[in-house]
Amino acid sequence: MDVTQPQQKRRNRPIRQVALTGSLMFGACALTMGIASVQAAETAQRSALIRFEIPAQSLDSAVLAYAEQAGVQVFFDSRKLAGLRSEGLKGQFSAEEGLGKLLRGTPVRYQFTGNDRVGLERLSDSGEALELSNTHIESNQDAGWVYQAPRSVSVITREQIDKRPPRHAADMLEQTAGVYTAVNQRDQGLSVNIRGVQDYGRVNMNIDGMRQNFNVNGHQQRNGVMFVDPEFISSIEIEKGTQAGMGGAGVLGGIASFNTVQANEFLGPDKEFGGRLRAGHGIGELGNGTNFNGSGLFAFGNEKGDLLLGMSERHFGDYRAGTQNADNLGTEIRLKSSHRDAWKGWLNDEVGDTGSVTRSNLVKLGVNLPHDQRVQLNYIATDTDSKEAWTYMDPVESAFYYKRTGKSDVTAQNASVDYSYSPDNNLVDLKAKLYYVSTREDRWTAPSESSLSSGNFVPGYDDSYRTDTWGLQLQNTSRFYLSDADKLSFNYGTELFQDSFKPDTERQAARNESALPYVEGMTPKGKRAMASLFGDLKYEHGDWLELDAGLRYDRYRLSGDTGVTAWMYPKGVTEPNLTRVATHMVFDDEREEGRFSPTFGVAVKPGVDWLQLYTRWGRGWRPPSVTEVFMSGRPHGGGAEMVYPNPFLKAEESHNWELGFNIFKESLLREGDRFGAKIAYFDTRIDNFSFLDTNADLPGASALGISMGRSAYQNNLEQTRFRGLEYSLDYDAGGYYAQASYTHMIGKNDFCSNQVYMGGAQRLVNVGTELRPVKVGNRVIMLPVRVSRAEDAPDLDQKVSCGHVMGNATYMPADRGALTVGMRFFDRTLDVGARVRYSEGNGENLNSHGYNFMDQALWPQYTVYDLYASYWMTPQLNLALSLENATDEAYFVAMGDSNNLSLARGRTLSGMLEYKF
C-alpha cells in the first residue's frame, strides 16, 4: 500500500519524537480515552477550495501531484494503477471534488477516512475492488521528485537500503553521488562527508531533524560521529551545499537527514493496527561474522492519534576480509615487501576484535488535535559496543596478531516534542520542535607501551565523553497565488541549539607529564551555542521559471578554558647563560560573533517540460567548535606527541556555486516507464579552513620546524577548494530497472599556516661583554663574559610552513561510482539484481609508506560486485538474500579510516525474512 505525502510538507516535515520516559503509559491512556471528535473540521477542510495545476500524465504520477497540492495523504498500490492515465486537473476545487475530477474516466474509486487521508482502490470489470498485492510504501520521498528539484539533493529509500543489508550504517550511503563516509570497520559510528567537506558540524548530521554533534577525537579521520540504527530508517535525504532554510546554521557541506519510520507507514483506511517483523542472519561459512539482525515495529492508531513501538538488535562477529587482487593494496601495508609470509597470514586471517552488538528502542506517540493540529512525542535510544585493536609482529617475526588497545560502550538518546498546525490557510503551515540529544561513550584504554623506567608509562584507565545538545526549531511557510501562473512562497523561522561537552577521566599522569596541556584528555570541556534567523523566498512562474533567494543570520557563543606551557626566555634579563623557563598560559575564553549568509537560485525549463536547467550560489559560515579551540593533551597516552589549543582560531567562510540540469521523462522508451537524470558541477571555496597542523611551534621558539607531532588547529592561509561533477541516473520500466551514480573530484589543496601559531617567537642576541666574577683556582677575579638578551622575533612569527596536515581533508576524496541493474518477475513480486561499486582510489603511498608526514594515501582502486534477490511469497511475507563482494575483493572503502588497517568485508552471504501485518 502506497502512501503519498505532500511534497512541500515532506521537505520540511516535522520530526516527531518523544521526550518522556512514561510515554507508553500516557499513550495507552490517550488512545483509550480518545480525543473529541473533529468531524466538522474535516468536512470544512475537504470543502475548502484549493488551486490545482496537474498536467495530463500517468495516473500514479498525477496522484502524487494531487497529494502535494491538496496537502493530504493518499494510500494506494502503484502496481494496480499501472497503465492508467489522467487527463490532469486545473482550477480551484475542494479536495474531494478535485480528486473526483482527477480520477474521472478511470476504474478507480476513493474513500476519505480523515481530514488528510484518502484511500484508492482499482475496480475490476465487474465493479469489485481488486485484491491488493504485496504491501509497500511509496511516496514523494522516492526518486521522482529528486529529478525535478532545482538543487543538488539525493534520497536513499528503504527499498535501496534493503537491497544491500547494511552491516555498518555507512553502507547505506555508498551509492550516493557526492557522499563519502570515513568508515572505521570496528565501530558503528557514522561520519558523513559531502563533496569533501566533513567534521565539526560542517555537515549537519541529524536523526529526524535532531542534530548529532557528538565528538571524540580519534585518528583525525572522523571528528564528529553519529549512531543510528539502519533497522529504523525509512529514508535518508542529503541536501548538498549551504542551506537557507531549517538546519542550515553553521553548515558548509550540506545536511544529511536520517528519517526514521512513522506509524502511518503501517496504517491506512480502516486499518488501526500494523507493523513489521524482520529477522536476518549470515548463511553458513559465507555468513562471515554476520550474526542475528532483526527488529520489530508495532503501530496502533486511527484518525485521532497513533502509537509506534520498535526494538532492534544487531550482532556482528569477527569477519574475514577479501583476498582477491590483494596486490592492489601495495607493498608497504603490514610489511608486505619484507615479511611476506606474515602479511599473507594477516590477509587471510579474521580481522580481530571487530565484533559488536547494537540494541535500539523507539517510541513515537502522535495526537491529532482539532483545527488541523498535531503533537508528537518521540524517543529513540541506541546502545552499541565495540573494541579497538592493533596488529603486532610476533617475536620471531613470522606472523601478526591482534592486541586489544581499548573498548567502548556508546549510548545515544534522542527525544523531542513536535507540533504542527496546517489549517486551510495559505499563510499558515507552522512546524515547531524542541529536542534533546545525549550521547555518551564509556571507554577503557589499555596501558601504554612505554616502559616503567621511561617516565612515560601510563597505566590502563577508564574515561567517558558526553555531548548534550538542546535544540529548538520554529518555522512557517506562507503561500501567495498572485495569478493563475504566478506563485510566491516564503519559508521563515528560527533555529537554536547548544552543545555541551563533558569529558571525565581516571587517567593518571606519567612521571614526565608536568607541563600543560592538562592531562584530562584531548576532548575538552566547553559549550557552544548557535542561534539563527532565516528566510527563503521562492517565486514560480508557470511551470518553466523558478527563482529563490534566502538570507540567514547566524550568531554563536563559545566558552571554555584550557592551557599550555611554553618554554620562554625571560624578557629584560641579561645573563651569560640565559635559559628558558616554564611559562604557563591559561585561557579562559568566551567569544561571541555573528554573520549574514545569502543564497540565490534560478531554474528554467527551456521549452520542454522534461528538462530543467538550474544554478545556485550561496555563502556559508561556521564558527570553530569546542574541540578545535580547547583540545589539548597526548593523543596516545604517552610519547612525545602533543595537541595544543588555539584560542585564536577564526570562523570559516564558504562560497558555494553549482550549475546543473535535471531530466525527468515518463514513457521514454515504453508506456509507463520513467527516466530521471541529475548532473551538476559544484565549486565550494572555504576561507580560513581549520585543519590540524602537525608541526606547530609555541611562543618562545627560536629554532622552527622541528616539532613534528606537536599539533594545533590552524586556519589555512590558502583558500581550500572542493569542486567536481556529480552524475545520478535512474530508469524504471516496471519489469526492469537501472540506477547509476558517479562522483568526479577535481584538483587538490595546499595547507599552509604560521609556524609559530600564536606568535611570540624569540631569539638570543649577543649584547657584548660584562665584567663578571670568575673563580680561578682559589682566587676570584673579574673577567669579561659574553652576555645575551632575549628579544622578540617578528620575522620568525611571519614564517609560513606548508604540508604539515592531518585529517580527512588532506586528500581530495577519490572518484567513486555505482551501477545497479535489476529485473522484476511474477507481477513484480520477485526482484533480482546485481550491483557494481567502483572507486578510482588514491594510492599515492601504497608503495612508499612512511612517517615523514602523518597521513598516508592508502585507498587503492577497487571494483566490487554484489548480488541480491527479494521475493514476496505472499502480500505480507518477504524473503531477501544478499551476496556482498561476490568476487572476494581486497579493498578499503574509499575515504575509509585506513589508519585502522581494517579491510572491508570479503564475500558475505546473508538472508532476511520480513513479515508485514
From TrEMBL:
Cleaved signal peptide residues: 1-40
Cellular compartments annotated: Cell outer membrane
SMART domains reported for this sequence: STN
Domain Secretin/TonB short N-terminal: 72-123
Pfam families recorded: Plug, STN, TonB_dep_Rec_b-barrel
Gene3D superfamilies found in the cross-reference section: 3.55.50.30, TonB-dependent receptor, beta-barrel domain, TonB-dependent receptor, plug domain
Coiled-coil region list: none
Swiss-Prot/TrEMBL keywords: Cell outer membrane, Ion transport, Iron, Iron transport, Membrane, Receptor, Signal, TonB box, Transmembrane, Transmembrane beta strand, Transport
Membrane topology: Multi-pass membrane protein
Family listed: Belongs to the TonB-dependent receptor family.
Stated name of the protein: TonB-dependent hemoglobin/transferrin/lactoferrin family receptor
